[in-house]
């Protein structure tokens, strides 16, 4: 159940980020701020569900998969936090009318790392 909550939360975050950017670029600052605040609430849901998955993997699953997954689980958690930070940087810089090229590059790199580890390497993918 937590896996589905986590996947739904980060999919919603990507959609909310796109909506926030579109509103800011159209000059609708009030709508952009509202969408940005909802995005920030979604970050909390991502952190909760991700922390729950992390706790489960670190405490219950290593008897079946071995302790060799510990570094990968930690890297995935850090990459997930990196995704959230990059998304927030993109939203803030776009809201201020500044270039967000660097945060976009960071988002792509962190998202690729997170998706490869989450769906390709670690258990509980879907």
From TrEMBL:
It comes from the Bacteria. Keywords: Cell membrane, Membrane, Transmembrane, Transmembrane helix. The chain crosses the membrane at residues 6-25, 37-58, 73-92, 104-124. InterPro entries: UPF0344. It holds the Pfam family DUF1516. It comes from Aciduricibacillus chroicocephali. This is DUF1516 family protein.
């Amino acid at each position: 159940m937590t896996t589905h909550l986590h996947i739904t939360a980060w999919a919603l975050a990507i959609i909310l980020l796109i909506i926030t950017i579109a509103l800011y670029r159209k000059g609708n600052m009030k709508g952009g701020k509202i969408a940005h605040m909802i995005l920030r609430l979604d970050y909390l849901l991502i952190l909760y569900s991700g922390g729950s998955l992390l706790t489960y993997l670190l405490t219950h699953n290593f008897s079946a998969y071995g302790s060799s997954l510990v570094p990968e689980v930690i890297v995935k958690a850090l990459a997930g936090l990196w995704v959230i930070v990059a998304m927030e940087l993109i939203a803030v810089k776009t809201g201020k009318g500044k270039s967000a090229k660097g945060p976009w590059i960071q988002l792509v790199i962190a998202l690729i790392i997170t998706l490869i580890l989450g769906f390709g390497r670690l258990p509980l993918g879907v």
